[in-house]
Amino acid sequence: MIGTFGGTFDPVHIGHLRTALEVYEALGLAELRLVPLGRAVHRAQPRFPAALRLEMLEAAVADQPGFVVDRREIDADQPSYTVHTLKSLRRELGDEVSLCLVLGRDAFAAFHTWREPERILKLAHLVVMERPGEPLFMEGPLEALAEGRITALPGDLAKSPAGRILFQPVSQLEISSSDIRRRLDAGLSVRWLVPEVVWALLKRHSP
Predict the structure, then answer these.
(1) pLDDT value at position 77?
(2) Average pLDDT value for the chain
């Protein structure tokens, strides 16, 4: 199975990396693609330029086997929609490979509002990272999308290319990119909130 985990990574931090590693191990993924956002659609554009976000992410995962930084959204000359990214991945990987889209609980809560959510489920499984013991309440359009798709067994994802939804417990580290940016603006250290190589890059590029 191949996983894909997108985000602004503005900047990448320990919370991103620890949860990504836990999903990678729990699902027995052959590879996890980390896909930094190119051009945002429904939110402010990232603070750090694409080249620096890419450099920080590549440095952060350079020594982690199975982690691959995928720059297709940054290189694309269009806004970043998940459905476009998955279509691109499918063209590369073929139709038979089990492909897992890894996303957070808050993102999944709004999944029914994304562009072509039904098409996304035909292209990939959803792996929703959640805090243990706090199941997500679903209703309305989201409940309809999820009906008949939920599984509690990671092994079920390997049996088909796409279409299942798995809720995967992960460690919840109270770290956010927005808090890191606020600390940087205040002249505070963000050491040990980000990998050492990312901390070095942030210091080098800070005004």
Answers:
(1) 75
(2) 93
The alpha-helical segments, DSSP class H, found in 110-161 are 117-123, 140-146, 154-157
Q: Where are the alpha helices (H) located in 62-207, listed in sequence order?
A: 72-75, 82-93, 105-109, 117-123, 140-146, 154-157, 177-185, 196-205
Selection from 65, 101, 56, 70 nearest residue 193 by Cα: 56
Enter the tokens of residue 109: 């809560």
Q: Which residues pair with 68 in a beta bridge?
A: 33
Query: Residue 116 belongs to a domain with what CATH number?
Result: 3.40.50.620
pLDDT mean over 36-58: 88
CA dihedral (191, 194, 197, 201) in degrees, to 10, reads -80
Domain of 7 in residue numbering reads as 2-173
| Residue 185, in any domain of the structure | no
Q: How many CB atoms lie within 10 A of CB 65?
A: 7
Residue 180 inside a domain? The answer is: no
190: in domain: no
Q: Does residue 72 register a pLDDT over 70?
A: yes
Assess whether pLDDT exceeds 70 at residue 141.
Answer: yes
Q: What percentage of the chain has pLDDT greater than the value 70?
A: 97
Q: Whole-model pTM?
A: 0.93
Is residue 28, in this structure, part of any structural domain at all? yes
pLDDT at 39: 81
Domains: count for the chain: 1
State the CB neighbour count (10 A cutoff) for residue 174. 6
Which has the closest alpha carbon to 146: 168, 164, 128? Answer: 164
